[in-house]
Amino acid sequence: MRRSSGLKVLLAFVAFGNALAMNVDSIPVWHPEYLVRYNHVENYPDSLNNVNNSQLQTHGYKTMQVTVGDGGTQVDQELRLSIQGVVGDSVYIDALLSDVDRKAGNQTTATLQEVDQVYFRAESKHWLVHLGDLTWTDENLGLFSIERSTLGAMVGVRGGYTDVRGAVGTDEVTRISRVFNGVSGQRSGYAISDNGDYLAVVPNSEAVFVNGNKLTRDVDYTVNYAGGLLDFKGAKIPGPDDEIRVEYDAYDSDNLYNLYAASGKYRHPNLYLDVSGFRLENDRERMKRGSWSDVEYESLKKDKGGNLYRSNDSLSGGVDSTLLLKRPERTDRMGTRLRLQQDNRYYMDLEMAVNRHDSNSVSDDVDGPRGNAYRWFLTTDSSEFMKKFPVAFSVYGNYVQSEFEINDFQGMDHDWNSFKLKDEWDLDSAGVFSGDLRHDEFGMRFRLGSEWFANALWGYRQGEDENWNSSRAKVSLVHKNRKVMSDLGVARVSSVQDAEKERYQATGTTEFLQGLWRPFGNFDLRYTDIDANGVEDEVGYGKTGSGFLLVGKSWQASEGVETKLAKRRGDSYGDDWSDSLKSVVWTQTADWHGSYVDVEHFLQYERRSVDSSAAENSWVGELDSRFGNEEKGISGSVSYKLGLTEEQTYTSVYKAVAKGTGDVRYDSLTGAFIEGVDNGDFVYEGMGRNDSVGAVLASNAAFGIDLDWNPGLFLEIYEGILRDITLGGSYNAVGEDTTGKKLYFPASTPHELRKISSGTIDWETRLRWEHPIGLSVAYKPGGEYDKKLSSISYFESSFHHKVESEYQINENHLVGVDALFEKSELNALQDLEWNVRDFSGRYRFCFWDGFHVEPGGRFRDGEGNDDMDNEFDAYLWEASLRLGYVKPDVADAYVKFSAVQMESDGDMIPYQMMSGYSDGRTYRLESSVSVDINNNISFGLHYVLRFGDAEENIFQKLTTEARAYF
Fold first, then answer.
1. What is the pLDDT of residue 949?
2. HSE-up of 114 (CA within 13 Å, CB side)?
3. What secondary structure does DSSP assign to 25-55, as a single string?
4. Model pLDDT, residue 318
5. Which of 774, 812, 628 is nearest to 706 (CA)?
6. Which residues pair with 96 in a beta bridge?
7. How many CB atoms lie within 10 A of CB 525?
8. Structure confidence at residue 197 (pLDDT)
9. CA–CA separation, 916 and 922 (whole Å)
10. What is the phi/psi pair of residue 712, to 5°?
């Protein structure tokens, strides 16, 4: 299997097939009206269609909320100002100022992270100016590209066939690239950081590839920028055999960079010329002022190689040997690309690029790699259907020096991506990039008929001094038209790396493109002979896929099955064939969008075994539906989710704020966070990864249903009791188990919930009667059960009966009475159970065109005991008076004063039992004012004052808010 020297010579022109490095379908169609597309303004936002071309339009809002509590002040603000429109002689203006004061990771301004985004952009047919936040994107070359979020300025001019742009910016981000494999059945929760740590990702800076194919943001995937989690959305879920590559910018305050970039394009109908370049370097002056000490800067200047460490005067030797000192870097890249065509047929694509990297830009004694790269492609016919001549030749190749660092700033050619090297060339990327790289391919295409084509190609890859090499030859037969596309091919791959491999491969695909029923199928069969220093093995591999797609006017459905089978034998595995991989994946999707029903369904099941081990199952499924219409008397929704996969667990995250300014409090008696309180010390941040627990095999299921039914509307009865009643209810359950149980439906009873790792159940039924005279009564029995995955085995259950009644006597008088009966049990730091009865009443009198006065009262009592049979009981009386004023679209204000007397005989009681009140008397004053100056500006104020012998001291919290919409 040694490579003969004859393989290094140009054998003959062989086909350009679909496996060639540049897909022929991606070559531009050479029509002048397509090429000369820079004679008009492009890249207008989609919203431009809604902008009045005769003037600028301003839209946005500004809100500010200031909360002052006993422990300090909390400020939350949000601003978004957008100006768009066309002014003067077709000059398009786009300006944005956005300050959303959100969690880390959601900012887009690289160095002014307290402002989310700010930019001003003016563009005409012949020039462009962009100031502020920008993303410099240059993807014109095949050997390298750059996409970087920065803060600075960009200018450009265009005229005729020419477009020139340049940008200068500064940022505090690091470009990160991570490659990993999928997990069977896992659709969401992939950490894109190297070690799963919290990560702040620059929004919209990421690029996601699966098996070398770039995915579309918000269509195929979403990224949680605050934390760095990747969720897939498409019908195809990556598995263990699929390679996922994610590139993104992450905030790094220690990495201060300056960017200088420029690109020029010339687009003649017969000639494309691109010149691109950039310099990306650490800002040495800013780092000298803010990141380095004088001692560290001097050590960087005297650097001659080896490790450098951060200084620390308190340690022996004055350095901290556990913290490396990062050297300031500088990268220069420049390239040019020339594309020529003649007669819409002959085509040539030539490219050259240069890389210069300085690993310490302040030292004269430390340099870095410097290398070049070259790429070429020529063909006698670049058209898809070869209508002018039935035979076409093509040549493709590239030469990359190792110092060019091809994996950094990867270009659009993607010729050296790791998945392609392994899948098509039997090469391990880990051993490829140690030296210079060379790739040559020669191809030929034949037109056999109007819809039939034959392809053949031969390609050769080699490393420096041929320390590794691989050759690949393939012939294929292609049939394609508007209704169907098919491809049948055979290939031979021979490679030498750590082992000598010889592969024989047959592939085929077919897909119907039109019609109601669209079947598809594919296969990939491989036989590989391996010789590793005299140890000879054989590997057989087969992958098949088949299914169909049904497409209707407002619906579509698909079924698909994919199988994989790999066997091997030889000196390493024995004389008999043994299974190394067996996998079956079944995928089902359905979508239906109608007037009264919307349904979206996805289900994927995989059964997989590796190395003759026991088969493992994984699955993921989602069903979401909406049905009915409120005007028809019935409406509701149903959702169902199912999963079995190895994934990371999540838990609620609460952020500490200034004391007394939050709305979440920690109850040390029960070990629970209580939300919706006056004087909390925390706020709810969302769900986060529980990194104290590793990835585990988790089975999860969720089900939810909500239904409302009015018999009168449904049966078109407009008199009697059926007209007045509405029946309804809701049920939601979520369950997850990490102990090996399989969940196909979430636990539906507290007994079942206790048997799994975590989950919740809540249900409520509703019976409401509304009579035209103004009397309404609602009865709502329900229950809530919660088991948390925690070290204290938290489990809480409660069952309640709610009765709500109102009588609208006339326009100015309303009486309301409510009752609550609740039984709760809690197993946490202690085992507690208690019963609560709560009765409240109110009377509202409206007067003076908007004013109202509302006296009210409440009585609440409860009793319970702990696991030591220690009993506790408590009760409270509350009397309140509310004075308010409401005028629609103008003002909504009220002042409510309450006096609460709570008695518990000094017992320790759960916080929830008495609504957070302590023994003694509490006076509570609550005032709220919201004023709308006009349709665009409003102000709000909310003030809470609590005092009395039940309070430790006087507590007050003031929250002010201003809102402006324009």
1. 87
2. 3
3. GGSPP--HHHH--TTS-----GGGGGS-TTS
4. 63
5. 628
6. 82, 119
7. 16
8. 63
9. 11
10. -65, -50
